[in-house]
Amino acid sequence: MEILYEDNHIIIVNKAPGEIVQGDKTGDTPLSELLKQYIKEKYNKPGNVFCGVVHRIDRPVGGVVIFAKTSKALERLNKMLREGEIHKTYWALVEGKPENSEGSLRNFLKSDGRINKTFISTEKDPDAKESILSYKTIANGDRYSILEIELLTGRKHQIRAQLSAIGHPIKGDLKYGAKRSNPDGSISLLARKIEFIHPVSKQPICIEAPIPMEFTKILS
Q1: Is residue 54 packed enough to be buried (19+ CB in 10 Å), middle (13-18) or exposed (0-12)?
Q2: What is the C-alpha separation between 95 and 141, in angstroms, rounded?
Q3: 160 contacts 170 by C-beta, under 8 angstroms
Q4: CB burial of residue 168 (10 Å; 0-12, 13-18, 19+)
Q5: For the whole model, what pTM was predicted?
Q6: pLDDT tens digits, one per residue of 177-195
Q7: Which of 67, 155, 158, 193 is the Cys-Cys partner for 89 at CB 3.0 to 4.6 Å?
Q8: Neighbours of 99 (CB within 10 A)
Q9: Got the DSSP string for 93-158?
């Protein structure tokens, strides 16, 4: 577990692909519980330790995730998240080379919880939600391109579904049309950067995740 930032109110970690942020039906130990144990041991805290989940990223995705160490910070961060005051930037390693080096994508997405997948739908579908992202190409390789992505909405599997819809699925993402899986079961999507105003100190916070090797190969 790699900690990127910590103070009295928040803790930000670099989640490895395969880890889960919050407990689920698998029964695997989530990051939230690992952090509670870390806080308990580091600060020699008796009894139960608080560690609030502010947001999640998909299990096969790596990168920056915020947790709250106090209930006050969690309440304020949740409000900031709802109001779009936490700015997240993603990097995606996608198959092929987009025709336009930058642009925006707007779709109506509908999720099917039974199979844990999101589909492109229509504006007329009452269950579909408008989903918007912008992207720009950072680098091109022989078979893959790196895109930097800004989310204007935060829908389930939004990036994965929208990039697949334009014919450029994320490397390793078999669920959304990738040609082959990654050896470790991950998908090549990185929660690269997170920016926000600290909920207590009011200082600007900008934290970046380390760049994985498969991205640096193309960048170089």
Answers
A1: buried
A2: 10
A3: yes
A4: buried
A5: 0.94
A6: 999 999 999 999 999 999 9
A7: 193
A8: 9
A9: EEES--SSSEEEEEEEEEEETTTTEEEEE-TT-TT-EEEEEEEEEEEE-SSEEEEEEEESS--TTH
SS3 of 34, please?
helix
User: Which residues make beta-bridge pairs with 135?
Assistant: 103, 149
Catalytic residue among 7, 28, 58, 184: 58
Contact 143/96 with Cβ under 8 angstroms? yes
Is 125 considered catalytic here?
A: no
| pLDDT for 185 | 94
Query: Residue 25's pLDDT is what?
Result: 81
Q: How many CB atoms lie within 10 A of CB 184?
A: 10
Residue indicated by tokens 């819809």: 165
